[in-house]
Amino acid sequence: MLAYTLLILLAGGLQALAAHVKITWDIGYLNISRDGLSTWQAIGANGQLPIPPIYVTQGDILELTAINHLDKPVTLHTHGLFQRNSSYYDGAGMVTECGIPPGSQFTYIIETRNQSGTHWVHSHYGPEAIDGLRAALVIRDLDPKLLDEYDEDVLLTLEDWGQEPSNAMLERMKTTSLGRHPNYPSVLINGINANFSQPIRFLPGRRYRLRVVSMSFTYWFKVRLPGHAMQVIEADGIHSRPSAVDGLDLCPGQRYSVIITARESLEFNYALNVTFHSNFLARKPGLNPRYHHVPIVYRKDAPVKTFPLIEDHEVKWADEYAMEPQDKQMLLEPVDQHIVLNVKAPNRNTSISAHAYGDYAYAPVPVPPLYTALTTGDMALSPSVYAPQLNAIILKHNHVVELELRNSFAPIMHTYHSHGHAFQVVESGLAKINSSIPVKRFKGRYPMRRDTITLAAGQYVRVRIKADNPGVWYQHCHQEQHNLSGMAFTFIEAPDVMQQTLRVPQEMLEFCRILGHPTQGNSAGHFGSDMTGIDLPLAINGTANSITGT
């Protein structure tokens, strides 16, 4: 009874303490050199890059206003937030909205009552995020038990930054063979060239929560602090039971929090090691992998402690299969729907630059699929109202869904990011005989959850969700050039329920009208299965996908 009373008091306290945090991003072009090497037209907010991190406290309502001074639409996606009962605020361009037209502004209302942790915000319209429109988002916790575990918050953002605007890079990639990207990018740590990383001050015995955010769109990062013990406590906004690790390996879009206890002595300073790496760029000394260091300063004039080099396989990396969520959510079962999707790519000898999770390269259509699901009545439960290039998968309300992604034949790593959900990480293993990747399965009673995961070459990954968040949710590879070339699909989650619960703001519908997009009917703006006016989808050959269960 006491525990129940405390929960009620805590819930009431969240409401009482909630604040409206108002942030405005005046979005426009900037000619800037972020890495000191190349100057080109980037996209920033309020005349600056990097865009400062956003900090709110759990229970706050974030009012994020975007003023669009670009010459094209813009959207903002809060990466990692579930947008429960507000799928229309998810920010996925031409999925949940048409975008904010040039010269217009819009305010996203972001509820944080049921989420906390480390996230980020970025554009989800074309490649705008690659060009700079991104920033970290930290939702401070209210749980006193968690707050007692550390004394201070430290944020570490990791970015890749190209030598040319995204449109030039993407155009170049259409004519380069698989894995031969035109330029090696620079690395930015906390928004500046990693070669000039700003020091982090440690005080003896103090406990630091290091929040690491990969705001990368193509490359992986590894993070270690030799001479210090790490306890990982969060992955992608999901708090975990503390577990000891030596380092973190982050794919594009992932986040971790670790507790680091500072040493008692002032004798030495230390180096936080950040390694940039990629298996689809040619290895080249000084470029791939690339090693950077963030100074950890105990005393200004102290020497830096050195450590013997160790191989990656000797490092205990944070592992989602070994982690357990703090809330002890059991494995979701029984499974109602089992989905198998195979990574597909065109033949190397073709001129087509496309990837796919579904049978077709994903491509936007005239009507955002959220609006189709909301306006087609009972037909919204039928795949026939969604154009094939949406790779739409319809989920029934509260069904347990197991998704298996198979990277059988692609010779490179991919990623999978889920909007609207943090999935249970259940299993990974060999997707073909000649792979050497060992089979993994969650080790405890409670599988860890997260929203972004690596899909290694020759590997399958199996995850589970409960379809309890009615809406349309974009699912995609977070390597942006793959996402933009079609490596995506959509969950149409409980369309019958969302028709009763979701009400799209009238302003968003008006934006569609301004941009020339219908807001009702099937993907083509018609009713029934008539798709007249839509381009034929680009079919990608490969192993057939399968969906079983209803």
Structural write-up:
With 550 residues, the protein is mostly beta strands. It is built from seven helices and 32 strands. The protein has helices spanning 2-17, 144-147, 166-173, 369-375, 480-484, 495-501, 506-515; strands spanning 20-32, 40-45, 54-57, 61-68, 77-79, 105-111, 117-122, 134-140, 152-161, 186-189, 192-193, 200-201, 207-214, 220-224, 230-235, 238-245, 247-250, 255-261, 270-277, 290-297, 337-342, 392-395, 400-406, 414-418, 423-430, 440-441, 449-450, 452-455, 459-466, 471-476, 488-493, 546-548. Strands 11-10-9-13-18-15-16 form a seven-stranded mixed beta sheet, with no helix packed on it. The protein starts with a helix and ends with a strand. The model is unreliable at 1-16 and 347-352 (pLDDT under 50).
Write the layout of secondary structure elements.
Blueprint: H1 2-17, E1 20-32, E2 40-45, E3 54-57, E4 61-68, E5 77-79, E6 105-111, E7 117-122, E8 134-140, H2 144-147, E9 152-161, H3 166-173, E10 186-189, E11 192-193, E12 200-201, E13 207-214, E14 220-224, E15 230-235, E16 238-245, E17 247-250, E18 255-261, E19 270-277, E20 290-297, E21 337-342, H4 369-375, E22 392-395, E23 400-406, E24 414-418, E25 423-430, E26 440-441, E27 449-450, E28 452-455, E29 459-466, E30 471-476, H5 480-484, E31 488-493, H6 495-501, H7 506-515, E32 546-548
Parallel strand pairs: 1-4, 3-8, 9-13, 12-20, 21-23, 22-31
Antiparallel strand pairs: 1-2, 4-6, 5-7, 7-8, 9-10, 10-11, 13-18, 14-17, 14-19, 15-16, 15-18, 19-20, 21-32, 23-29, 24-28, 24-30, 25-26, 25-27, 25-29, 30-31
